[in-house]
Design a protein that fits this description.
This protein is an all-alpha fold. The chain has two helices and no strands. The chain has one domain. The longest helix has about 130 residues.
Length: about 160
């Protein structure tokens, strides 16, 4: 064979091989590469969106946490205020109850003092009658001299 014919045949075969590769092999490879390039771009875009969403979620969670802390602080302040109001109400009620108990005790003491004075007057009048009867040497009738005894008790 002639080297020129071989070279020509190899050039034609190479050209056919290049055409065949361009027509049937290169197009699917380029399509697959374009598809892969699109998937990578979509993945990067999705990652960027996810990163942005994560930042938004972090900001939102920080905001919710701040609001929750504010609400908790308000609740604590209100409960402390209510607790102090309840303590003040209890103090007021205790003072009123204490005053009522003291007034009742004073009234009871006054009654006891009055009864003791009455008993004492009765005993003093009995002792006075006994002493007067011994001094006079005769017995004094309490029923007969009731007016005199009543005046004596009233004076004592």
């Amino acid at each position: 064979m002639n080297i020129n014919a071989t070279l020509l045949a190899q050039t034609i075969m190479f050209a056919l091989f290049v055409w065949f590769c361009m027509k049937f092999v290169w197009t699917p490879i380029v399509a697959a590469l374009d598809e892969r390039k699109k998937q990578i771009a979509d993945g990067l875009a999705e990652a960027e969106r996810a990163k942005h969403d994560l930042e938004l979620a972090a900001k939102r969670s920080a905001e919710l946490l701040r609001e929750a802390k504010e609400k908790a602080g308000d609740i604590v302040a209100n409960s402390e205020k209510r607790a102090s109001e309840i303590v003040e109400e209890a103090k007021t009620q205790a003072k009123v109850e204490g005053g009522r108990i003291i007034a009742g005790a004073k009234a009871e003491i006054d009654q006891e003092v009055f009864r003791a004075k009455e008993q004492l007057r009765t005993q003093v009048s009995s002792i006075a009658l006994a002493g007067a009867s011994k001094i006079l040497g005769r017995e004094i009738d309490a029923k007969a001299h009731s007016d005199l005894l009543d005046k004596l008790v009233a004076e004592i």
